[in-house]
C-alpha cells in the first residue's frame, strides 16, 4: 500500500512486519549449529582419548547418541522454521542436514567397509 494511503487511513505498520522484512543471517545460523556439533565432537573425542578399556566404547556410543540427537533437533528446528514461514533458514537447515548425512555415510563406509 502506498505511504500516502497509509497516512490517509491512519494505518500503522506494527513491529512484526518490520522485523520480518529483515533478511536472515544465514552464515551466523550455520556457524552456531556447526559450532555446537564441533564442540560436542571435540569434547567427546578428548574424553575418548583419555579413557581406556570398555569405557571407550561407551563414550563412543554416547557420541553417536549426541550426533543423532543433534540431527533430530535440527530437523525439529526446520519444522518450526517452516511453520514460522522462515523458508530461507529452513532450507539452510535441510541442506546442512543433507551434507551431514553424506558425511555420516562416508564415515560409515570408511569404518565398516561394506563390500557389495
Name the descriptors.
mainly alpha, membrane
**Tally of domains:** 1
Which bin fits the share of residues in helices?
over 70%
Number of helical stretches of at least 4 residues = 5
Give the rounded overall mean pLDDT: 86
| Order of SSEs | HHHHH
Strand content: under 5%
Q: How many beta-strand segments?
A: 0
What overall form do the CA principal axes indicate? elongated
Question: First CA to last CA: what distance?
Answer: 62 Å
Query: Structural class given helices, strands, pairing?
Result: mainly alpha
Uncertain stretches:
none
Quaternary state of the chains: single chain
Q: Radius of gyration, Cα only, in angstroms? A: 22 Å
Largest sheet data: none
Transmembrane segments: 30-51, 57-81, 93-111
Keywords: Membrane, Transmembrane, Transmembrane helix
